[in-house]
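Changelog note: in this version the structure field was regenerated for every chain. One regenerated record is shown below for reference.
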Amino acid sequence: MEEQMLNIRCLNSEQTIQVPMGSTLEEIWQMTGLAMDYGPVCARVNNKVEGLRYRVYKDLQVEFLNVTTPTGIRTYTRSLFFVLCKAAHELFPGCSLSIDIPVSNGYYVDLYLPAEESQPGQRRPVTLDDVGRLRRRMQEIIDRALPIHRKECTTEEAISMFEQRGAHSKVKLLRSQGLLYTTYYCLDGYTDYFYGAMLTNTSQIYLFGLEKYFDGLLLRIPSQEHPLELGEMTHQDKMFGIFKEHHAWQDIVNLRTVGDLNEVVEKGFSARLIQVGEALQEKKMAQIADEIAQRKSVRMVLIAGPSSSGKTTTLQPSPAAAFILLLISSTLCRTSATASSGVTAHTRQNPSFISLSLHLPSPQSAGCLIFYNPQSSPAKFPAR
């Protein structure tokens, strides 16, 4: 029987090649005869990201990606997470590991190490020796050039498998997704669930770093702009503190994972969750207003953040917003905290800034607060 051939349009070379039906992306890359520094690590297939073990069964277009692309570095990082998880469970039986927040050009890792048997339910601190052992075991796994296998099974089978391992957060997530089939990955007998493409072999991981960071670890990854160098380790203590506060809020509402959130929504408690979240936010806003009011030299307040981060929402009518404006106007204008003021907000459909003019009893007391998005193009503001 004649082998059926497919037409694959390779966007990297802008050429169409014929490949046997069922070929993997890795095999297709070899057929192209192209060379790519730091890759390829994954591919965009008809605009959907897939790992290189993905098989094609129809004509389509493919763009191969390396670690200098956002999608490529995510694939590399996700595979590095897999190696870290395997190494941790081999070295520290009974531990739990959470890949947490992106910080200092890397990822903070919360490693829970159980204390001695005389202290059941307690955790012991992570030591420099623990970090060194973990780093060496990760390098051993990478040097062994172990294949990373992509598996697929029914979601019921995946739930049963992770229940036996005690991975309750993954069980909650899989149960709430409503999918018939689930994809998971295997690495030398260690199994885990990841959402997204992975490398095909640990030997493709050529650079990483692991450092002690506060009470956990910092997993460092290559710089996207300079792939042969690790991202610069910058100290972001304030940012780290905000993330810690974020986790404290998660503990208050008893939500740490997407599976937890899905479960709450399914049980009809979403409105209550929103109310608690808004109450916590109002309290934080009031604390910020207090701090601003105590700084007598403040003349302007800037709120910066990326698109859809809540800059405009911060100005919506609420007790906290009114309190902030009252305190700030008092500080700017050296009037009493009970001074009356009118506020007008000027916005655009796609605003790069929001200007608030505080109209107080005397012309000399007028002030201006500018809430500015640094990712937008700079705007010029008239002197007030």
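Spot check on this record: Confidence is low (pLDDT under 50) at residues 334-384. The chain has three domains: 5-65, 72-234, 296-372.
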